[in-house]
Design goal:
Helix Hairpins; alpha/beta; four-stranded mixed sheet; Mannitol-specific EII, Chain A; binds zinc ion; 2 domains; globular; single chain; 276 residues; 10 strands; six-stranded mixed sheet
Length: 276
Amino acid sequence: MILTKYITKGSVLSQMTATNKADALKELTHLLFEKKKMESAGPALDQVLAREVTESTGIGNGIAVPHARVTGMKSLACAVGRIPEGLDFMAVDRRPVHLIFLICYPPTEQTTYLNFVATVAKLLGDDDHLQGMLAAADADDMYRILEEISETFTEHHEQSVKKLRADPALDKVGDGHADLILLARLQLCQEMLATTRSGKGQIKQRIDSIRALVEPRILKHYDKLMKSRPPALVPVEGDTCQGCFMRLSSKFVQQVRQDPEHIHTCTNCSRFIYVV
Ligand SMILES: [Zn+2]
């Protein structure tokens, strides 16, 4: 996924001076409103702040991904803020946050949102990328780096997908099943746990709290997959399962796409799937 498809140059702040989390979130939400990405800033900000109360979106490594689902938006939009001084975000690894990716998305783009967050975590999980963003001269430079690392990543890992992404119809995916969202979070936490050096205890706690919410039957299958052939949850892109890379029948993929009320698995490898 090319992150800068969802970020405009004017929505990047290189020198945020907010001294607390609420002020920083307010500034970034208002920025998206000023750039005409949403009709009003209030409802989005309320959601962003409420979310932070129940669970910090500081995913570790100095990065936070606050988010809100906003009706009436045309497509997902993200504002990026850099805080050179760092901000206490109650992040999973307790480290101060230096980069905030504030994401607002329409209800129809839940899957795009999941992809976006996963891509942010993957790209900025690379220390060279992260240091590049922190050392960038200004907002333009930050934007250029985001564009560059997104493209390099895409070229190397998603070459086949790139062509498919040109089809705008692929972005029009339905809202996901609640358990699917939980599994995506669970998988992200497990990936973090495997790569992070600090804050493991916090991540383990979060994993436990997510696990408690997932239906036992689904959790059992998820655990089996994670043990035998991770990842357990994969996208289907252009009718191809990105777990086993087998082409699924168009009819089946269409059924999955049209039935967001249920959780679906690949007919070949049995991994949990979502259609992008
Ligand atoms: Zn498969």
